[in-house]
Amino acid sequence: MAIKVIYVARHGYRSNWVLKGPYPDPPTGIENDVPLAQHGLDQAKELGEYMKTKIDPSLKPQLIISSPFYRCLQTAQPTKMALDLPLCVDRGLGEWFRVERATIPYPADVGTLKELFPGLISDDTDADDGWENCSMPSRHGETEEDIFNRCKEFLSNFFMEAEKKFPDVERVMFFTHAATKAALGMNLLGFSSVRDTLDDSGKILNNPSCSLDKYEATGAGWKITMNGNTSYLSKGAEMNWSFQKGFREASDEDIKIRLAADAAIAAEKGAKVAATMAD
């Protein structure tokens, strides 16, 4: 069967976005692979409850594909458990790291993730007959054009891989990151750039933390029927991000929190380095 409905969710509120620490180390030991804050875990539960109780049974997803980064799997977990769905990991849904970044984090392998999330991942990507990565981010970082093309390749291969591995599935849910979520959407809607607008009024894709997009096949392409939905979140939209505006669309308080958290994390890392040198 062909895929007819695609849900795309962004991960929940990250632990390095909160104003005050302590800031937990990445459970995988990989730079930038930060876990969710408690608020993000709560958001993930709200999303899972929404998918279970508010989505018509005929429209519920039948399969989850997640980024391998820890925060995305944490966000996917309540939905996977609520709907009892298979969940596969795909590098093609991973985070966007700019080419000018000093280091490009490489996510944990599936074996490590299965140890960290017992029972969550249904299909080992490393197995001979398992889910195959539909695209791979560059180890040297990506431009905006690169992530757009990565998502184009991902979608092309995803439809073939889903037909091969899950031939009865018509509805899927992706768990990913803001930039990847936006790039996927712009590809599905037939645009040629991540910075295109959806219409002449300048409308763009919205990507708050733990927000949800929904795309439905039309026969001639795809239409968007949810754009950054956060109706199920008790605190509404937070940390909205776009290629056009960065975090400027977030509230002033959100921006203040993010900048303060970044400064606090840098200070905490500096203190650890100083303590190590003193030893």
According to CATH, the fold-level topology is: Rossmann fold
Shape: globular
Please tally the β strands and state the result: 6
What would you report as the Rg, rounded to the nearest angstrom? Answer: 18 Å
Mean pLDDT: 91
CATH class: Alpha Beta
Structural category is: alpha/beta
What level of helicity do the residues show?
25-40%
Oligomer: single chain
Number of domains: 1
Question: Stretches where pLDDT falls below 50 for ≥5 residues?
Answer: 248-252
How many separate helices?
Answer: 6
- State the distance separating the first and last CA atoms: 62 Å
Which CATH-level-2 architecture?
3-Layer(aba) Sandwich
SSE order in H/E notation?
EHEHEHHEHEEH
Beta-strand percentage range: 5-15%
CATH H-level superfamily: Phosphoglycerate mutase-like
Largest sheet, strands/sense/barrel: 6 strands, mixed
Spatial strand sequence of the major β-sheet: 3-2-4-1-5-6
Structure description:
It is built from six helices and six strands; from the N terminus they run βαβαβααβαββα. It is globular and about 55 Å long. By secondary structure, it is an alpha/beta fold. The chain has one domain (5-278): Rossmann fold (3-Layer(aba) Sandwich), CATH 3.40.50. The chain has a six-stranded mixed sheet with strand order 3-2-4-1-5-6, with helices on both faces. The chain has helices at 38-53, 70-83, 110-116, 144-165, 178-188, 252-278; strands spanning 5-10, 63-66, 87-89, 171-176, 212-217, 222-229.
